[in-house]
Each structure stands twice: as C-alpha cells, then as structure tokens.
Amino acid sequence: MLLDKPISNIENLIPQKAPFVMVDTLLGFSCENIISSFKIIETNIFYKNQTLSEVGLIENMAQTVALHTGYDYFLKGEPTPMGYIGSIKEIQILMLPQLDEVIITEVRILQEFMGVTLVEITISNTKKKKIASCTMKTVMAT
Predict the structure, then answer these.
(1) Strand, helix or coil at 71?
(2) How far apart are the first and last CA of the chain?
(3) Helices within 14-130 (DSSP H only)
(4) What letter would DSSP give residue 98?
(5) Please, what are the domains in the chain?
(6) What is the DSSP letter of 7?
(7) Quick one: which of 16, 36, 37, 125 could link to 64 by a disulfide (CB 3.0–4.6 Å)?
C-alpha cells in the first residue's frame, strides 16, 4: 500500500489548483485505500487563528479522495476527472492542526458505483493522534 517513493508532484493528479490545493504528497495507494500528507503553512487560504480551519480539513479529505481517482486515472493514461462532495456524515473534528504540522489523511473506499464513491476518512498527525474523521460520498462530474 505505501509507495516505495512518495509522490510530491501531484498537481496533475487532482483537479484543484493553487491556492486551493489541500494535499501535497501521495504516500500510499491501492484500489481500496489512499494515504496523503499535507503540511500546514501560514499562506494557506484556510489558515486562521494559528490553525487550519474545519473547512480546510474537510477540503483535505475531499481532495485526498480526488487524489485516489486522479492517480488511478494517471496509471490508466487518462486525464484527471472533476468531482464533487455529495454528502458528509458522522464528521468528527477533534482538534485543528497548527502551523508547520503535517497531517496524514487515510481514505478507505467502501463502495464505488457509476461515478459515486463512498469512503471512510481519518486524519491524524505524525504522532498518530486522530484529528478528524468522517464518512463522505463523492460524485464524479459527467
């Protein structure tokens, strides 16, 4: 599942563009899972009051799902598709990451059908302390 070498050049693997990018490294990938990381920097558009906001965490979750799809399409030699958040359930935000903290986002694919993906997502810090989690449904644009 973990890649031999993390991929930090992910700009072409997700549809989002700077300054709206909330993932910076692909750490692991399989058909059922993905792991990304993201360093909190002061210039991030969701950095407020010395932390990454709740919206930034949710966007990181969604972009990690998009990274899974984008990397899968990259491996097939196809362009990265656009997608949208369909729903978010059971969200828990236990803490907000601070400046220079690196967060690790793990996504487990529960179900994929006709462009709709249901996933479980957990964000933790590098000390493996849980930061946030949710169940999310994403929809691929047609």
Answers:
(1) helix
(2) 29
(3) 54-76
(4) B
(5) 2-140 (3.10.129.10)
(6) E
(7) 36
User: Cα–Cα distance between 30 and 72 in angstroms, integer?
Assistant: 9
Per-residue model confidence as pLDDT tens digits over 19-31: 899 999 999 999 9
* Cα 67 from Cα 26, distance rounded (Å): 8
pLDDT tens profile 30-49: 999 999 999 999 999 999 99
**Which of 93, 81, 82 has the alpha carbon at shortest distance from 121?**
93
Provide the pLDDT for residue 1.
77
**21, 41 Cβ separation under 8 angstroms:** no
Stated length of the chain: 142
- Spatial contact of 132 and 123, defined as CB atoms under 8 Å apart: yes
- Both structure tokens of 96: 């907000």
